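A.,

Following up on our hallway conversation. Structure tokens first:
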């Protein structure tokens, strides 16, 4: 496989704040989306999203070429637990799920010609889109939308809300509580999978087997509202949303919108590969 184009952009415009990572090796291609920190904790100067994304990116090159997803997750979890232990974090993250470093991840295995999706990420195989949304995200996004619509009716303006997103402030407790729904041992209507270093039901991972003749594969984090066949088309779709609905509460509802001075509502990563048809 060959990298045709790749991009990673921080929502703030400062690469030092970015919680996304990507990694492409001879055998794997991976986009990692470290969850936005809501605890305020820092670990060696890094947010929890930066910690988990960094450990995963450093572990991907160590994976055996033909590993199945159970082995992949096992190796990544072991690496994360070693990091927690070495940095005095283990007890805190075990006891408080909402402080736990958390990531969504999309991984392509060249030897298995398979994409695995853990959490909210997306890919495009030739021109076929695959997504993996979470119901808790929809609930929180709609709650924030309702709150902001009420703020507008009370007289607030879009400009004022870009300065201070009271809708995000209102749903922050829900975002913290959603972490209790993560990686539950039993099926739950609000449950979802994420990479944290702790075990979860691998049945929650979305598996996509590529067609033998697939020629192109794009992987992206959810910082792109819509994945498109090329990076430029994906960027154009994002910029259109940012222009028409910068708060992301009407046309494209999210738990957070654009903050004045930022480049976007979230970090974003896009990697497109040229595959050799089998």
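Then the amino acids I'd put at each of the 278 positions:
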């Amino acid at each position: 496989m060959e990298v045709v184009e790749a991009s990673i952009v921080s929502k703030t415009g400062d690469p030092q704040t970015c919680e996304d990572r990507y990694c492409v090796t001879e055998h794997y291609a991976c986009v990692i989306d470290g969850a936005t920190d809501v605890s305020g904790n820092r670990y060696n100067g890094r947010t929890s999203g930066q910690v988990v994304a960094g450990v995963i990116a450093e572990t991907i090159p160590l994976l055996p070429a033909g590993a199945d997803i159970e082995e992949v997750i096992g190796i990544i979890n072991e690496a994360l637990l070693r990091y927690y232990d070495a940095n005095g974090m283990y007890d805190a993250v075990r006891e408080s799920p909402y402080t736990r470093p958390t990531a969504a991840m999309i991984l392509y295995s060249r030897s298995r010609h398979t994409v695995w999706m853990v959490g909210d990420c997306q890919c495009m195989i030739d021109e076929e889109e695959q997504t993996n949304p979470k119901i808790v995200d929809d609930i929180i996004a709609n709650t924030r939308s309702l709150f902001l619509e009420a703020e507008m009716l009370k007289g607030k303006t879009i400009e004022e809300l870009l300065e201070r997103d009271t809708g995000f402030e209102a749903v922050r407790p829900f975002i913290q509580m959603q972490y209790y729904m993560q990686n539950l041992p039993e099926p739950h209507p609000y449950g979802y999978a994420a990479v944290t270093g702790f075990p979860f039901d691998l049945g929650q991972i979305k598996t996509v087997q590529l067609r033998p003749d697939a020629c192109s594969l794009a992987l992206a984090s959810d910082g792109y509202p819509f994945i498109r066949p090329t990076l430029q088309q994906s960027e154009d779709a994002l910029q259109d949303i940012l222009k028409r609905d910068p708060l992301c509460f009407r046309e494209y509802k999210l738990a957070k919108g654009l903050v004045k001075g930022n480049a976007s509502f979230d970090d974003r990563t896009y990697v497109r590969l040229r595959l050799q048809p089998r």
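The chain has one domain: 2-274. Curious whether your intuition agrees with the design.

B.
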